[in-house]
Amino acid sequence: MTPGLKVVINYKKHLENVIESILHKNGLSFLLVFSPSNIFYVTGSDAPSALVISQNGEVSALVTRLEYVRAVSEMRLGEAYAFTKQDEVSEYEKTIKGDLYEAIAQVVGSSEKIGIVGGSLELKDQLKGKLNRELADYTKEFYLLRRSKDDEEVRLMEQASRIAEQALRRAIDLIEPGVTESELAGEILRVIVSSGAEPSFPPIVAFGEHSAHPHAKPSLKKLMRGDLVKIDLGAKYQGYCSDMTRTFVYGDPSEKQKKIYRAVLRAQEASIDAVKEGAKAKDIHMIAYNVLKEEGLSAYFNHGLGHGVGIDIHEEPYLNSQSETELIVGDVVTIEPGVYLAGYGGVRIEDMLLVQRGTSRTLTFFTKDIAL
């Protein structure tokens, strides 16, 4: 895929899935949708504060005046309304008088069966009081729809992966004794942004003993020969994220470094082989854990094996020892075992995979050689 290529997401299909699977199935008159990612999934914009979706497919996006113009520009379906208590507004604004809760009440009227997706407990309490009725929560059902990525969503995530891989290659080209973690992180950000994307999270660049911090923040620490170099990065392209981690050694790796690296790589390869439709997230995590246990390193694997990726960098499903989730076709998940030895260093290797029937497809392809 070439940089800048525009992929058209079928937001209408997303909306139809929401209406059929949630509103029609449960006999709802309206569904209230909160959180920027959920709103983006339906409309193509994260500017609105809330969506009100009716059973006949009408979408009312309620937006602050501050974000109104952006919402109108970005939204691929629905009608935007600025909610405001001000009397003086511009000629181009469609408005509803009142705060967000009052605006929602005006849109839904006296309808009884209303569902909600997302939103804090405080927000739900406020709505319950304003509407004077119970709101059934369908957040889990909505997230299940988001989990199954369609072809266009996958293409955007592949493009995000290619941009991140380009950024990692450019950062590696700058590696020399004395370069700092922050300098490499800065180059990663420069390449991602200049490619028409944004970082899906602040990049992690960690040298030597600093690499033992799973979520290390780049510092002015300088690179030395023999250091482990851990780089975790991702791009967000047209609203969809990528995520990848590679660990290298600058110079000749020691036997201890090679032992840890090989163990983590073997744990990743074994768990990748198990990723497919119907596989239990917990079982895939335990495959990696047991490989590291055989190597005497499981005590230093201190996080879940992976997570879903999509509009959010961390979303359902989560692959850990407590999860009861089964993978479905269209899930995009990370597989990222790690070993972290405080005061010495850490190794993590991470790839994104698309879950398919009977197998999976890798979406990240950067080399996994240990030596730079």
Short description:
The protein has about 375 residues and is of the alpha+beta class. It has ten helices and 20 strands.
Task: Describe the structure in your own words.
This protein is α+β, with helices and mostly antiparallel strands and 372 residues long. It has two domains: 11-147, 3-Layer(aba) Sandwich (Creatine Amidinohydrolase, Chain A, domain 1); 151-362, Creatine Amidinohydrolase. 35% of the residues lie in helices and 22% in strands. The strands form six sheets. Strands 5-4-3-2-1-6-7 form a seven-stranded mixed sheet. Strands 8-11-12 form a three-stranded antiparallel sheet. A three-stranded antiparallel sheet has the order 9-10-13, with helices on one face. It is elongated and about 70 Å long. The relative contact order is 0.11. The mean pLDDT is 96.
Amino-to-carboxy terminus distance:
27 Å
Q: Do you know the CATH topology of the largest domain?
A: Creatine Amidinohydrolase
What is the CATH class name of the largest domain? Alpha Beta
SSE series = HEHEEHEEHEHEHHHEEEEEEHHEEEEEEE
Mean pLDDT across residues: 96
Low-confidence segments, given as residue ranges, are none
Please give the radius of gyration in angstroms: 23 Å
Say which CATH homologous superfamily of the largest domain is assigned. Creatinase/methionine aminopeptidase superfamily
**SS field, number of helical segments:** 10
* Strand proportion: 15-25%
What class do helices, strands and sheet pairing give? alpha+beta
Largest β-sheet summary? 7 strands, mixed
Shape: elongated
Number of strands: 20
How helix-rich are the residues, as a percent range? Answer: 25-40%
* Second-tier CATH architecture of the largest domain: Alpha-Beta Complex
Strand order of the largest sheet: 5-4-3-2-1-6-7
The total domain count is 2
